Amino acid sequence: MERLADLVDLYEYRVEDLAQGRPPKGGKRALLELRAFLAQARLPAPLAKRFRQADARFRALRGQRTEPPPALDLPTLLPEEPAPSRKEGQENLRTLALKVWRLLASREARARAKDLLSGRREELRLIHAFLQNYLDYREKPEFKRDYNLSRFTPTHPIPSLTDSLLDLEDPKVAEALLLEYLETALRIPQDLPIPPEETRNYVRRFLNRLLDWDEAYGLPPKRDLLALRRALKEARRLGAGEKEIARLEERLREEAKEERRRELLLEEERRRFRVAQEKALALLNLLPVPQGETPWPEVPPPGEVQETLATVPLAPGRVALGPLVLTLSQVDGTWYLGLAGEDHVLEESQVLPWEDLEVWAVREGDLLHLRLEARSGLRLYELLSEGRVLALLLSPKGDYAYLRLLRGLFAKLKGEFRPEELGPRLAEKYRQAPEEALLDFARKGLEVTLKRLGGQDPEPLLLEVGQALGLEGEARTLAEALREYLGRRPPTRETLGGEVHLLSLSPEPQSLKVGSAVLSLRLKEDGVYVGQAGEVPRRLKDLLVYRLAEGALILAREGRRLAYLVVGTP
Q: Is the model's pTM score more than 0.85?
């Protein structure tokens, strides 16, 4: 603990040297090595906060760097990586995948934090109390064997909404809190010898113990009515005067009234934080499997360069990644990543914006993993996520069973559900409708149904509709698709299935090969036209579901950027 504090002090001193225009003690390389060590160390909360503040200052100073490294004549092909041992190679790939997951989690936390900043912020306050109590209990000797938390007694209450030590109205504070929560939960199987699959259950038990603690809510202590009753009884026994007895009776009534008010307030607080508990537990879905539900990011083996993914040995050279050519160079022991004519100091993990895309770079030892992602602010991935649900709704299987189920769900929510109006005969209207009109109809139906559904689970109502229509299996499939769609905001390449492709549109006709089909793309003023030879092209405004023999092709467009994904339909 003292050594870590000394290292954080040293990092702050070296950043201060840099801010004053002096070379940091030990040189820039020593500064970067110290920064990398602290970034991976398990720092206690106070030290982690100091490190984040100093690191933010360092990144701001680095952005003002005016001395670009000299351009180098680099080979087009990267040299082959010396073959490491199989075990070491797998560990490096796993570490790279974990670093990519942290970048994904940071993006997700930024989006989720915005949703948690409204109202009384129960979720953020509960997460703060969990972190305080967990980190405090982890230092105690009984922690390691207390799997069921039978010996755990909370010591830190839930902070009040107006706590002066917190600033939960600040989106950056909320984002940092969510990231610390995810990182802490990720380490639980290392802190305790429990299977990773038990992480969520352990956190649930911990939160239950906290919420069962009456003192967690910052309410006044329970009033001692028994002592007052004894005093009143004793006064009557001793023959006290009427005024004294009346005074004691009035005090007992007031205290009883205040105690009832406190009990009602306690029950209301407990109820609200129970709801917040479920939302806090749902955030653990962002953990990688098997702890959560987020697939591990795909990291190709060393030396493999795919369309938008690459893992390469750290050596001077060029790397072609989608429409970009990146350069790797080394000057005075420092590695640089070149993008669009500008060189950036290569860090352990970083995100570099380029037009409407982002280049993600993560480094582990002598390996560098690069990936091209859509900007988090763009709607491409959100459109693809919506398209996955629409591909299911537009499936003609079972006489458009899923589209009929969605209409039945909306009618059920309105209280106007009549099964006889949603039978197979309705499918004939869908078959006769133009594909573009049917897509618009399904999109609008999905939007209004989810808006009316709010945050409730769609499965119970869908099962009722499915039983009435004889489509129980399809109702469960649709419920799962809707739950996944609602729970993946914002979606990522991994949650979309990993096979997301990006394409830049141009005025010239382009070809797109998907499986055995070859589609033509034509960019015009009113949209993009998609089709195969011998058929009428379909217009892509921002989203299109195109049926193929391999499944459904989902195309999403924003400006001149196109993303597409192929999904199977049941």
A: no
